[in-house]
What we know:
The complex is a heterodimer.
Chain A: E1 2-17, H1 21-30, E2 33-48, E3 52-56, H2 63-70, E4 78-83, H3 92-96, E5 99-103, H4 115-125, H5 130-143, H6 159-170, E6 177-181, H7 189-206, E7 209-214, H8 217-223, E8 226-231, E9 234-240, H9 241-247, E10 251-258, E11 270-274, E12 278-284, H10 290-299, E13 303-309, H11 313-324
Parallel strand pairs in A: 3-7, 3-8, 5-6, 6-7
Antiparallel strand pairs in A: 1-2, 1-4, 8-9, 10-12, 10-13, 11-12
Chain B: H1 2-24, H2 27-52, H3 63-83, H4 90-95, H5 100-103, H6 109-115, H7 122-137, H8 141-167, H9 169-172, H10 176-190, H11 199-206, H12 211-223, H13 227-252
Helix pairs in contact in B: 2-7, 3-7, 3-8, 3-12, 8-10, 8-12, 8-13, 10-12, 12-13
Amino acid sequence: MKIITVENLNKSFRVKTKEQGLRGSLKAMLSPTYREVQAVKDISLEVDKGEVLAFIGPNGAGKSTTIKMLTGILQPTSGDIRVLGLNPAIDRRKLSYSIGTVFGQKSQLWFHLPPIDSFNLLGRIYEMETKALSRRIAYLTEIFEIEELLDIPVRKLSLGQRIRCEIAASLLHSPEIVFLDEPTIGLDVVVKQKIRDLIKTLSKESQTTIFLTSHDAGDIEQLCKRAIIINHGQIVLNESVKNLKYNYMNQKVIDIKYSDEVSVEGLALKVLKSKGYAIKVEVDSSDCDIDTVVSNLMKLGKVVDITISDPPLEEIISGIYQHNSIGGDGLA
Amino acid sequence: MLMEAKKNLRLIAMYFKFNLSAAMEYRGSFLIQTFGMILNNSAFIYFWWILFSNIDSIGGYGFREVMIIWSISSSAYGLGLIFFGNSIKLSNMIAKGELDSYLLQPKDVLINIIASGTIVSAWGDLFYGLILFTIVNGFNPIHTLLFLLFCVTGALVITSILIITNTLAFFIGDAQGITSLITEFLITFSIYPEGIYSGFTKLIIFTIIPAAFISHIPVRLINSFNPQLFLLLLAAVVAWLLFTYLFFKWGLKRYESGNLIVNKL
């Protein structure tokens, strides 16, 4: 069953422009000039009930603008949106009972009060019954492991603790769809993993549909079955994460440090950097085994440090461009 | 309609309790701000007292009347900002795109926004007015009841003006300048005797800067009650509220959100 359908969605903003300096300012006062900026261009997509969808793209690609139109915060310039059969621009209040939203940069918790106070207030804003609310709080407290954070003022929580409370807060009214806008932004590796595990549990246990934006390739790989990549307001790619991984996310970067100088000659590897003690290589996991590469590298000398990472999303997207040869203007 | 009104009143009450407990988090600051405001306002009593020891009346008002318009204006302003503290920050919130979380909740957007914040020092304004009124008027149950009622109507008028001027931010981008200008006008007009205004200024205090409905008509009604005048006051308040609500709704269509964290303005 389709829970979100979007057809030919467009959003443009009118931006006032001016030439540089004071002279430009004076000129703009006398005869203001405007430019149309298209934040979202002709986007169409569908999301099934219970699906975990990754909506990804670099900064300024139009991710947040799209989410804001799906949740009714912004009015589209043109196009048609149906979320749970409702038009968000018209039935915003009705829709708000069935959706939950977390914007990584914007808090819905009161800064000076402990989360439990915000939870109680939010529960009443969503007109929940007292008993149902306290049951729900108890349940979320348990899975999000925030028991001991509930009575500490939010300003004293760490970012990771706060995000856990934020997500719990957005789930109080048992929404059918959850929009998570950059939930892992600014978090360290361990906390990131914890948040991912929580999102996984959530989608498994309650069949909640999750619409996730991120520019962290790890989020997408671990959480989602399907990914939609957007750039410059347009959909660049819409396919399963399995295909995406196989076709575009097969590059791994290995950073390795030795206690003595080593030579990489003779190894059939793409060396990005070699400084004697430290080596950086890129491996294509579709045609060679990471396991073998790593054990070969280890044999070169005594290893002090090793990290294996994904290339940044920007590189993956530019790989997609090269592959599909679309969007001739390249990446911003 | 009635159900909706009840829901909104419940929301306001909920936020009131909530904000009070948030303010109490900083007990010291709460007390200092409250008493500081009382002290600050008290300085003006001295000024008027000196003036009235040389002159008998100004614009038909004696010392008592001037103190009553002062106390109503102060308490009304305080009451408005205790319950609807965000009405003064609205322009800033619009410019920074902070309305998102309110738009995501199943409540009336305007009431949800303005009631969700409070101004701590407004408690000082409220108490100052109450104390001053009781001192200059003595304890008279009917007068006190009328005074409290006029604090509510005054608070609604002041809140309306704050919302309207702040809502201009949807159209002109930054409305903080015009808001403080109009608020300044409104307060100044409402704390000087009605008799000093004539002609064009009189028209202004009954229309676009409705200071007359905050303090001047109330003081007339406290001195001698007139049902027609009382109904006129109530009608004016309702008209302002209605206009404010529709004006905000119209402006909200132009809201552009934004991802601002911190910005130089």
